[in-house]
Amino acid sequence: MIWSSLPATAVIIVVFSLVAQVLAASGLSYNGLALTPQMGWDTFNAYALDYDEDILMKNAQRLVDLGLRDLGYNVVILDDAMTEKTRSHDGKLIANATRFPSGLKSISKRFHNMGLQFGVYSSAGRFTCGGYPASLGYEEQDAQWWADLGVDYLKHDNCFNEGQSGNPKLSHDRFAVMSKALNATGRKITYSLCNWGDDKPWEWASTISNSARISGDIYDSFSRPSAGCPCSQDDFYCQIPGYHCNVMNILGKASAIVSKNQPGYWNDLDMLEVGNGGMSYDEYKTHFSMWAIIKSPLIMGNKLDELSPEDYAILINPAVIAINQDPLGSAASRQWRVQEDKKDEYGYGEIQVWSGELANGDHIVAFINGGSGDQVISSTLVEVFDGLRNSPKVQKSWDVYDLWGADTVMSNEVAARILGGESKLSHAEGYFNASRHGFQDAIARNDSRVVGTYAKTVPAKGTLTADIPRHGVALFRLRETSEGKGQKDEL
């Protein structure tokens, strides 16, 4: 279906249908929040525990100035080390006055005045991972303290849990105490569990939280293994989740549980590493693309004042973000994986094909090249559409739109001028302001910045083929072909 060929009344009907889907989906969210995956920026990957008020405000301002806020990156998360090392005599948390001389409440108000949300961090244990007071046994008191500060988001970790884990019931009940405490404050606070996939949160967390981590901590590598992340990519239920898990490792674990996503609850693959310098341009594109289509929260963990033009262009690609924020909330799934002879230095040499459905009937398709050299990857429509040869979708032809095409990716020259403050973002070629126009409205208008760059058309029962660089990705939106479209070529 090509939206631009529809009469205005038909477009209105489709838009109302999408609104109805969102309203229905809100009933699945335990608190009515996070109907699409969360987006924002977190301090930890770039600064660890070494951050302060100046760093917060500098990066918050960059979210606004670089147009990231208007694409949906609207929460700033203070990740640990935000309080003193001890509680007050009556058990309350004490804000770290040295790091935040203006006070956390003042910072919260400044964020809100900038159109941003205020996110904080704790752990469902005795201490946070950084050794600061955590919330086990203090859930009601801490939840109210945060609500009084104007908090909008809580990342709740799993460190120092005093043995209250080991089966899903134990973990569920421990994290549920904070869930109830947050709701009891009367303030809408998005609740994000960070329990590393411990005790299978995808089986129980959707009724008490808005997202939950499904693996150990990510680090800035595409496929390099680490002793800190002992489970392989095929061990989706890992008894020792660890840390220093690479992108391919986390993708492998996610492949088994993507069906657990729904509006209001998302499997969290951990923060985005884009901009931290440990991966190539193509690797970061793959990382960002796959987190987006699996519907992981898109939480940046970088220094926004040190972004390269290439990394900035990745993070603001509206066609990819629109997939992540699609109201259907359906995660793409891996259709097949093949081990190839072309292995990289870490033993990876596989190719993968993922696909998924979107709210308006379009489909997303991703090809991943995990090998050491460029490869041509092909997949039939039968393989794309769940291997069902008799599927009506296989009997149709599909227009193919490249989500990393020229219409969607900002040029390095333009990106460099924006990062340097030399060009106005509102007039930048390729920039899309989602807060002004909305992704679904842009899709209805067939805006190529969001729909993608038209490539070619795959005929019924045909094959989709693409050249993929080492560790790279091809990402396509497939849209049922309509009569009257211009030139079509087989792909």
Automatic annotation (TrEMBL):
The keyword Glycoprotein applies. InterPro entries: Aldolase_TIM (IPR013785), GH (IPR017853), Glyco_hydro_27 (IPR002241), Glyco_hydro_b (IPR013780), Glyco_hydro_melibiase (IPR006215), Melibiase_C (IPR041233). Residues 349-409 form the Alpha galactosidase C-terminal domain. It catalyses: Hydrolysis of terminal, non-reducing alpha-D-galactose residues in alpha-D-galactosides, including galactose oligosaccharides, galactomannans and galactolipids. Residues 1-24 form the signal peptide. One of its GO terms (biological process) is melibiose catabolic process. CDD domains: GH27. Its EC number is 3.2.1.22. One of its GO terms (cellular component) is extracellular region. It is found in: Secreted. Coiled coil: none annotated. One of its GO terms (molecular function) is alpha-galactosidase activity. Its main location: secreted. Keywords: Disulfide bond, Glycoprotein, Glycosidase, Hydrolase, Secreted, Signal. Belongs to the glycosyl hydrolase 27 family. This is Alpha-galactosidase. It comes from Aulographum hederae CBS 113979.
